[in-house]
Design goal:
- The chain is of the alpha/beta class and 276 residues long.
- The chain has a domain of 142 residues: Nucleotidyltransferase, domain 5.
- Helix content is 42%, strand content 14%.
- It is built from eight helices and six strands, in the order ααααββββαβαβαα.
- Strands 1, 2, 3, 4, 5 and 6 form a six-stranded mixed β-sheet that branches.
- Strand 3 and strand 4 form a beta hairpin.
- Helix 5 packs parallel to helix 6.
- It is globular.
- This is IS5-like element ISSco3 family transposase.
């Protein structure tokens, strides 16, 4: 790593050891026509992506002692489009689950959606208004395991019904794993999701709220997805949707969770914005 003052988002030696094999294999599979290896270290590129995700800054406002936006965005886009970001994320999730004594893939997932405001520059044809939550922007759908680790993510216009998001999540889950047998959802999801899950061999159960509850009341097992949304909120790039493409928004979730999991796996603390 080049000599500069460190940022809290920098990738330590221990954390880089978890990511580096995937990046090295990717580089080997994508050689430059000229044989040039690139002017910037992949560890610095990865650190710049995590820096932006954590701080929420614009591309043009990346610090001058990090690689330039042209290089960082180029790799971010390439890894988004060919699925390298998800490969890194999924390998880390398997590692994190196995470290907790669980199988690599879960048998139960929890589905939920979150509508977030879109920034001014986000194309209008990829956004909408969530009529129920009165939020103009995009809808972020997550499927998480019982540890709160992300199994699948889908980003769409906020106007999309939870059913559409739920169906898309179930399709993505089954496309990458055949172990999921049960999915818990809230009352925002309807029978269409239950029927679609049945067709995929997944028992979708609608967890109903206790009528006696007042205010926010965590539901057994389902609460973990709310915890995941709270964890993602520590990454300011995800507090609002700034991305032109929904696939970029999905990539931001993968990078944020990869950041979280590498810290958990190496015992590193995750600094909060309230830290001194």
């Amino acid at each position: 790593m080049s000599e500069r003052k460190p940022y809290p988002s920098d990738v330590s030696d221990e954390r880089w050891a978890l990511i580096e094999p995937v990046i090295t294999a990717w580089k080997a599979a994508h050689p430059s026509v000229s044989g040039h290896q690139g002017a910037y270290e992949m560890r610095e590129i990865t650190g710049a992506i995590l820096y932006q995700g954590r701080t929420g800054c614009q591309w043009d406002f990346l610090p001058h002692d990090l690689p330039p936006r042209s290089a960082v965005y180029s790799y971010f886009a390439k890894w988004r489009d060919d699925g390298t970001d998800q490969t890194i994320h999924d390998l880390l999730r398997w590692h994190a689950r196995e470290k907790r004594g669980r199988s690599a893939d879960p048998s139960l997932v929890v589905l939920d959606t979150q509508s977030v405001h879109a920034a001014a520059g986000v194309p209008s044809d990829t956004t909408g208004r969530d009529a129920g939550k009165k939020v103009p922007g995009r809808k972020r759908g997550l499927a998480v395991d019982v540890l709160g680790l992300v199994v699948a993510v889908v980003v769409s216009a906020a106007s999309a019904h939870d059913n559409a998001t739920g169906i898309a999540l179930l399709d993505r889950i089954t496309a990458q794993s055949d172990t999921v047998r049960t999915a818990l959802v809230d009352q925002g999801f309807k029978n269409a999701v239950v029927a679609h899950g049945a067709g995929l061999g997944i028992d979708v159960r609608i967890v109903e709220r206790n009528p006696a509850d007042r205010g926010f009341a965590p539901q057994p097992k389902r609460w973990v997805v709310e915890q995941t949304y709270g964890t993602l909120a520590l990454h300011r790039r995800l507090v609002r949707d700034y991305e032109h493409r929904p696939t970029s928004s999905e990539s931001r979730v993968y990078w944020a969770m990869s950041d979280v999991m590498t810290r958990r796996l190496t015992g590193a603390s995750t600094p909060s914005w309230r830290s001194a």
